[in-house]
Amino acid sequence: MARLLSPLRCCWLMLPVTLVSLAAWMLLTGPNELTSHLRHQDTWWDYTDANLSSKGTLNCDAVLRGEPEAVEQAKLLSLEQLFRKRNRLSDDHFLNVSKDCDTFLSSRKYLPFPLSREEAEFPIAFSLVVHHKVHNFERLLRSIYAPQNFYCVHVDTKAPASVLDAVTSITSCFQNVFLCSRPVEVVYAGWSRVQADINCMRDLYNISASWKYFVNLCGQDFPIKTNLEMVRSLKALKGRNSMESENMPSKEGRWKKVHAVVNGQVQRTEEDKSPPPFNLPIKSGGAYMVVTRGFVEHVLTDSRVLELLKWAEDTYSPDEFLWATIQRMPRVPGSLRPSAKYDTSDMQAIAKLVKWQWHEGAEEAKEAVYPPCQGRHVRSVCVYGAGDLWWMLQQHHLFANKFDVDEDLVAVHCLEKHLRNKALTFTRVRGSTARQSGQS
User: Fold this and answer.
1) Residue 420 and residue 413: Cα distance in Å, rounded?
2) 169: which strand partners?
3) Which one, 70, 99, 312, 318, has least CB within 10 Å?
4) Environment class of residue 187 by beta-carbon count within 10 Å: exposed (0-12), middle (13-18) or buried (19+)?
């Protein structure tokens, strides 16, 4: 934690000398000067690879509108061998391009300062748990990066050396992005997945007192909101947390029997577990959450929560009930009462949009929650394709899971380009409105 810095100081250290005064203008005055600069530097800010195909077959705007012909062209493009080969970037690629940080940051178009005063005054803390696919991770980081925010990156200790080396090189280019100080070997459905998030929580809690909310991510997530939209969604929570938390008796076997890690896999034993401490009602949920700083502090220090964490260490997939249970505990900041009237599904929470295969179906299907996956399924979860974007952008969630740039780079590219353009368009319109107001 030697790099303990305030958000604004992070900005100054990262900025080229010629941009320092520009950042000061934006933070200390209105948007006029910033907007003027953006009008003359559009090629620096905007993504210039507007078309990934030499044949001119990709129309992101049409894909985002869900136009069938454009979606079909995007699908065909993602299947082209030459396209896949040309755009599949190795771990070593990111290791090499990030050795020169100035070139890396400018060529990849990382934002060097906040786009608005509102965002600068509302930092967000993120944890990113990564074990492969550096290309995915780097696209995610670039899409959510803002110098006032904080990012803890947990690299699984069993990840290939090429992944750790590349992620280490990338994070070294930032003051507010850092590797988790206590990485662990993550076992699928095991306690270690929770421990990875807790270790990042602790690092983020210690590195700065300025951030307002904590959001945990994995390397195959991607935002579907701009940073400003996230800030406004978090403000609208008015100090509450947002995550899936509901009764689900069918999953009680996960915590009523002792589980153990055997040969790298979680296995159930026939030994009964003791009841939950304090007679807590165990709720079902997901691994992902949007929580206040006070919630994080309780996870790290509250004696009741610490006892629950200890009790959950030998259960199956504790991340899918633990956070949901803490969310319903009395006196936890941002929590809800345990009554079933406060149950929250993953579609109601804003943390993460996930398409489960068994909930997909046509609009006429009575039990269908969302339309069929336009990509493919891995462990019954949709790996999104370009055809999913139009539906996705209508939802209120902050992030969606899963994306894979090796399978469908078009989906990530069009979504990322849309978010960047949306963020910059808002800044330009805001500046233009302010100028007109000042002239009237």
Assistant:
1) 11
2) none
3) 99
4) middle
- Measured CA to CA, the distance from residue 160 to residue 238 in angstroms comes to 42
Tens of pLDDT along 156-169? Answer: 999 999 999 999 99
Q: Which two three-digit tokens encode residue 267?
A: 């296995």
**Strand 124-130 relative to strand 150-155, pairing:** parallel
Band (pLDDT 50/70/90 cuts) for residue 314 is very high
Measured in degrees and rounded to the nearest 5, phi and psi for residue 43 equal: -70, -25
Q: How many residues appear in the chain?
A: 440
Report the b/e string of 46-74 with b at 16+ CB within 10 A.
Answer: ebeeeebbeeebbbbebbbebeeebbebb
Q: Which of 53, 54, 57, 87 is nearest to 70 (CA)?
A: 57
| One-letter identity of residue 334 | G
What is the chain's Cα-based Rg?
A: 22
Instruction: Give the pair of three-digit tokens for residue 219.
Output: 């390397």
Which member of 119, 138, 244, 320 is catalytic?
Answer: 320
Name which of 83, 55, 66, 133 is nearest 410 in CA terms: 83
Helices (H), 108-187: 117-120, 134-144, 161-171
Query: Catalytic residue at 67?
Result: no
Q: What is the percent of the chain where pLDDT is above 90?
A: 79
Pairwise CA distance, residues 224 & 397, whole Å: 7
- Which among 177, 172, 20, 8 has a CA at the least distance from the CA of 104? 172
